[in-house]
Write a structure and sequence with these properties.
Elements: H1 3-19, H2 27-46, H3 55-69, H4 74-99, H5 102-124, H6 145-153, H7 159-196
Helix pairs in contact: 2-7, 3-4, 4-5, 5-7
Length: 197
């Protein structure tokens, strides 16, 4: 197989991945989903506390991650909360991606990136230690994940800067997901017009 065949294979894969055979999105569904995401984004912008209503579910998954990874050593136990918190919506997004379920993929990906906001809030508190902490273990031995992680990496003094980058990435991801959904809905409408004519 020469380079041109490999390049053509990648080109075809990219075209299929981003342009082909996704479930169509009707105009009413697109309007409803975009309105939902716009309302959520506005809610997230005006919520200065840094803890959104969906973060209660994220917290449960986060704490479950500590329990799940606790069997793999102290380091993975410490990181496990964030790993599982990010992995659950990302794995759902990956599944819906393989099934080409447009709105389900967008929903999962959107909330994967929303988790970045939650994580950024926790990261930014690494030195301040002002957030109330929750633990599934011994209440007398509660550890601030990101204080411990940043301390072990020698990055504690950069907690707010790193949190700012993670928060920015989360916002870019959420907005990008909505833009992608609108684009897919536009392609669905064009496809239905082509079929009709």
């Amino acid at each position: 197989m020469d380079r041109l065949e490999i390049a053509a294979g990648y080109r075809d894969w990219i075209a299929e991945t981003f342009e082909g055979r996704w479930q169509p999105v009707s105009r009413p569904a697109a309007i409803g989903w975009v309105a939902f995401y716009a309302a959520f984004l506005i809610y997230a912008v005006v919520n200065w506390a840094g803890f959104l209503f969906i973060d209660s579910a994220n917290l449960v998954v986060h704490e479950g991650g500590h329990l799940l990874f606790s069997y793999l050593g102290q380091t993975l136990c410490l990181w496990g909360g964030t790993i599982l918190q990010w992995a659950v919506p990302l794995l759902l997004a990956a599944y819906f991606f393989t099934q080409r379920q447009t709105t389900a993929f967008a929903f999962s990906l959107f909330f994967f990136f929303e988790n970045w906001l939650y994580t950024a809030t926790y990261m930014a508190d690494a030195r301040a230690l002002a957030l109330p902490l929750v633990s599934t273990g011994d209440p007398d031995v509660i550890e601030h994940d990101w204080n411990a992680i940043f301390t072990s990496l020698g990055l504690l003094q950069y907690d707010t800067a790193i949190a700012g980058l993670v928060r920015f990435g989360g916002w870019c991801g959420m907005i990008g997901t909505v833009v992608w959904l609108v684009w897919r809905a536009t392609l669905s409408k064009r496809s239905s017009l082509d079929i009709a004519s």
